[in-house]
Amino acid sequence: MVQSVLHALAVLECFERDPVLGISEMSRRTGLPKSTVHNLVQTLVARHWLRRTSTGRYQLGTRLVALGSLVFDRLEITEVAEPILRRLERQFRETVHLAVVDGGEVFYVHKIEADRSVRMSSRVGRTAALHCTGAGKLLLAFRPELWERALATGLPPRTARTITDPAALQAELARIRQQGYAVDNEETEESLLTVAVPVYDYSRQPVAAITVAGPSTRMRALGVEAVAQSAQAAGRQLSQELGFLGRLRSE
Question: What are the sequence ranges of the domains in the chain?
Fold first, then answer.
């Protein structure tokens, strides 16, 4: 490996945690002499990988923003998610989905079907309500701008367990934010239980949900918390693949 390239990358990686740094801070974090860091930084500034602020410190430059945008514009989330979702399905042998928000509904963009005689009936391209699905409640909890869209539906009951009172739903969303996952406990379909966890992208916004769904008796036998922990690990992995560098809100 080329040492000068590794050193330049080490300097750039210093900015994962802090947006603005000085030469001394970069030297301390990389273990490189200040003179070496200074020379690297001047080259990076000349190529617009870094920019010098008015205080004489440095931050990431426009070149990184431009290339980063190209990467994520061209990234197909379902392609990246496929192996992660498949491992989750193999672990629990229950149906796994990737869902996003489309307008005022949940939209299922990918599915790994469980190899079971009794399994969740669903399909890619299907839409569902925000207020009663695992994915919908999860995204409502972490994206408060969706609240008015959910209320616009009138929170209609789908089963006897559907939460139809706005105050009760707000309490449920607060619980989801605290624990870091959502559960659809037979609220959309009788005898169906779904666990949903968030997926973040490089902008640190929750852009999707991973769900594990199956007959409620089997899901309870697996243990809802155990399923949630594994799903959260999958969510963290996919978030990192999408460029998320922070800590998830539940951590």
Answer: 3-72, 75-241
Report DSSP letters for 157-201, one per residue. -SSTT----HHHHHHHHHHHHHHT-EEEESSSSTTEEEEEEEEE-
Q: What pLDDT is stored for residue 36 in this prediction?
A: 93
Neighbours of 64 (CB within 10 A): 17
* pLDDT tens by residue, 139-164: 999 998 999 888 888 899 999 999 99
Q: What is the pTM of this model?
A: 0.69
Q: Name the CATH topology of 75-241.
A: Beta-Lactamase (3.30.450)
Residue tagged 């602020």 (tokens): 53
Q: What per-residue string of b and e applies to 194-214 under the rule 16 or more CB within 10 Å gives b? A: bbbbbbbbbeeebbbbbbbbb
d(CA 202, CA 209): 15
- Domain 3-72, CATH: 1.10.10.10
Task: Give dist(CA 40, CA 211) in Å, integer.
Answer: 45
